[in-house]
Amino acid sequence: MILCFDSTSHNGFKRRMPHSYKALQDMGAIIMHGYNIVGDGTPAAIIPLLTGKTELDMPEMRKRFANSNAVDPENFIFKMLSKYGYRTAFFEDSPWIGTFQYRYNGFSSQPADHYLQAFLQEETKYGAKWWNGINKRHCIGDTPQYGFLMNMSKQVTSLAEKHFCFTFIVDISHDDFNMITSADDDLVAFIEHMRYSGKMENHLFIVMGDHGSRFSGLRETYQGKIEERLPLMAIMLPEKLIQTRPEALTSLQNNAHVLTTPFDIHTTLVDAMGLPELANDYVVLGSDIPRGMSLLEPIPKSRTCGKAGILSHWCVCSKWYPVLPSDRLYTQASAALANFVNNVTYDVRSNCVDRKLTFIDWVMKLSNNDDFLSFKSGIECNGQHETYVKADVKSRPSVEYYQAKITMSPGRAVFEGTMKYYVNTEHFVVSDSDIQRITAYADEPSCISKTHPHLNKYCFCKDKASKLPFT
User: Fold this and answer.
1) How far apart are CA 286 and CA 146, in angstroms?
2) First-last CA distance in the chain
3) What is the CATH number of the domain that holds 135?
4) Does residue 327 share a domain with residue 302?
5) What is d(CA 253, CA 131) in angstroms, rounded to the nearest whole number?
6) Looking at the structure, do residues 307 and 204 belong to the same domain, yes or no?
7) Are 45 and 264 in contact (CB under 8 A)?
8) Are residues 272 and 348 in the same domain?
C-alpha cells in the first residue's frame, strides 16, 4: 500500500502534517533522509518507482513526438504483479493533469484492476469543476476528494487476495501546499487503521511525496531548492517479513541516511514480495552496482549520485561554489541558459515570443571532485535539443559543470539549469532534462499547450504578450 502526496517534501510534511508525522514515528516508520529525486516533476518520480526505468528507457509515449504511442501498461508493476495473482489498484485524482495524461498519450488500456481515471474525468467534467471557482472544487459530494481516495485505498487493503495499491493525491498540495494540512487528521486515522487493524502483519506500507514544492515562493530560496529534491519517504515493513528476514529491517534502518532513489523503491517492492526477478538490473556505465538497489539489503554509504542514476542538477550531495560576476563564465553560462530557452521554442516562434534575459540571480560551479552522472549525449529528455555556446576562458580542466538561475521576460519566468562546459572547445551543452522553471507559467503557453505540452515552461504566447504593458 503506497500513499503518495504531490509536491510533498520531507521537511514540508513535518511542518504541515505534524500529527501524521508523529503517527508515522509512533508506528515505527523508517524515514528515508537521503531519498533524492532523479529528475524534474512527477513523471521522473513515479515512472522509476512503478517500472524501475526512466521514460527514456521505454518506447516513445510523449505527445506530439514522432513514433509516439500510448503508454504500455505491460511495463508497469501493476501488470507484472497481475501475472502472479495480485489484485492491483492505481488511484490518482486531478486526471486532466494526470501523470500519464498531461505530457503523455495516456494508457493504451486499463493499467490496473481498479482504476478511477474515467470516473474522475466525468465527475470533474474534465477539469471544469476545478477551473470554475473554489466552491466544492476539492470534494466529491460531501466527501473531500483525498478522503474518497483514502477510502478506496482502505477497501483495497481489505481484499482477501494478494494486492498492490498505489494512490496519488494531488489536489490538496499541488497548487498550494499549505492546504495539505486539511488532511492531517484523516491521514492519522488512515495510519492508525493500518496499525491497529492487523493489516501490518502482511502489508508493506509507504507514505511518500513525489518531490517537494516546484513553484512556490519557498522554491525560489536555497532551502526550497533542497526540499524539492528531498521528498518524504516513510516505509513500514510487514510484520511477517520482519519475522522471517530480521536483517531486512536492520538494512532498512541503516539505509535511512544513505543516498536512495525511486529506482530503489521499485527494487524494494519486488524484493519484499519475493519477486526479485522483476527488478530492473540496469547498471550505469562505469558503476559497479545496480542503479536500483533493494533497501532491504545493505547499500554502500559510498554510493554516489552517478551510480544511483541521478544527474548532477538534481543531486543534493554535489558541492557547488559561487562564480563571481567578474568571471567571464558568469555571463557566458547565463547566456547559454537563456539562449537554450529561446532555441527550444524556435519551431513555434510564430506563436511564442523570443524571451529576454532580465536578471542573473547566481551562477555556481560544481566541485571537480564530485562524482556525478554526465549528460546522455544526443538523448535528452525532449529527444532533440542541445545548444552550444562559445565562451572565452583561460585554460581549465577539460570538462566543468555550471549551474545558473536567471529571470526572463515577458512575465517573470525564473529558470534554473545545469550546463556541461567543454573547456577545450569552449562551448556549453544545455539539456532540457536539467532545466527547470521555478515560477508558475499559468496560461502563458495556452496557444501551444495542446500541441506542444513539453514546451509549456518555455513559451509565452504572442497573443498574450501583445496585451502586456511596455512590450
Assistant:
1) 43
2) 52
3) 3.40.720.10
4) no
5) 44
6) yes
7) no
8) no
pLDDT at 392: 38
Whether the full predicted model's pTM is greater than 0.70, yes or no, is yes
For the four alpha carbons of 305, 173, 256 and 207, in that order, the dihedral sign comes to negative
Instruction: Output the nine-digit C-alpha cell for 164.
Output: 498492490
Domain that holds residue 224: 2-312
326 assigned to some structural domain: yes
Indicate whether 369 pLDDT > 70: no
b/e map of 356-376 (b: 16 or more CB within 10 Å)?
ebeebebbbbbeeebbbbebe
Q: CA of 288: how far to CAs of 112, 300, 398, in Å? A: 35, 11, 25
Q: Which helix (H) or strand (E) holds 235?
A: strand 233-236
At 56-96, the pLDDT tens digits run 999 999 988 889 999 999 999 999 999 999 999 999 998 88
Domain count, the chain: 2
418-441 average pLDDT score: 92
Q: What is the DSSP string of 308-367?
A: HT-BGGG-TT--EEEPPTTSHHHHHHHHHHHHHHHHTTGGGTTTB---EEEEEEEEEEE-
- The verdict on 90 and 170 lying in the same domain is yes
Whether residue 471 is contained in a domain is answered as no
Q: Compute the average pLDDT of residues 352-362.
A: 97
Q: What are phi and psi of 356, to 5 degrees?
A: -120, 135
Residue 309 gets the label, from left (phi > 0), alpha (psi -120 to 50) or beta, of left
How far is Cα of residue 199 from the mean position of the Cα atoms in its chain? Answer: 29
236 in Cβ contact with 3 (< 8 Å) = no
pLDDT for 470: 52
Whether the per-residue pLDDT at 135 is higher than 90: the answer is: no
CB atoms within 10 A of CB 397: 9
User: Which residues contact residue 383 at a Cβ distance below 8 angstroms, ignoring those fewer than 6 apart?
Assistant: 60, 62, 65
Kindly indicate the confidence band of residue 344, based on its pLDDT and cuts at 50, 70 and 90: very high
333 grid coordinates: 553560462
pLDDT digits (tens, 9 = 90+) for 156-197: 999 999 999 999 999 999 888 999 999 999 999 999 999 999
Q: At what angle do helices 18-27 and 184-196 cross, to 10 degrees?
A: 10
Flag whether 470 is in a domain: no
Mean pLDDT across 253-261: 97
Long-range contacts of 214-218 (CB under 8 A, 24+ apart): 214/7, 214/41, 214/436, 214/438, 215/438, 215/439, 215/440, 216/177
CA–centroid distance for 411 within its chain: 26
